[in-house]
Design brief:
The chain is α+β, with helices and mostly antiparallel strands. The protein has a single domain (10-154), classed as Thiol Ester Dehydrase, Chain A (Roll). The chain has 4 helices and 8 strands; from the N terminus they run H-H-E-E-E-E-H-H-E-E-E-E. It has a 6-stranded antiparallel beta sheet with strand order 1-2-6-7-8-5. The chain has a two-stranded antiparallel sheet with strand order 3-4. A hairpin with a 3-residue loop joins strand 6 (117-127) and strand 7 (131-140). Helix 1 (10-21) packs antiparallel against helix 3. The relative contact order is 0.19. The mean pLDDT is 90. Its EC number is 3.1.2.20. It catalyses: a medium-chain fatty acyl-CoA + H2O = a medium-chain fatty acid + CoA + H(+); a fatty acyl-CoA + H2O = a fatty acid + CoA + H(+); a long-chain fatty acyl-CoA + H2O = a long-chain fatty acid + CoA + H(+). It holds the Pfam family 4HBT. Residues 57-147 form the Thioesterase domain.
Amino acid sequence: MSHTPFVLTDELRAAVASFFERIPFNRLLGIELDELSAERVTMHLPMKPELIGNFVQGILHGGVISTLLDVCGGAMALIGAFDKHQHLSSQERMTRLSKLGTIDLRVDYLRPGRGQRFTATAVLLRSGNKVAVVRSELHSEDGTLVAVGTGTYLTG
């Protein structure tokens, strides 16, 4: 069985962007999409006072860090699922992908989240018919690796 190479069309890219921009919590935090491709997803988050976890040192809250890694990983899992489900009709594909959810997320906090802008990137490690595994990283604007995450997502 041959597999057609996956191309993330502008239409699919817009669908993924719309899906994540419509989540109220993502908007509340201020998460912004930078790159959506078949190889990588990149998002960033500007620091604001409401996101501080340690008010003495002014560092990003750990829950915000894990959320950003999870959101970025979920977008990458969704793109991987588009590839796996490209043989389905648009309606059936959207029905399956509407069930996207996090099964497991492991976060390793490596350094304090200091800075004014944080960037998350995610790459697909494995995408199956029902589950995807994604690796994510969070960097501060000076390039410091703040945290890494491995997420497992239900995709179908």
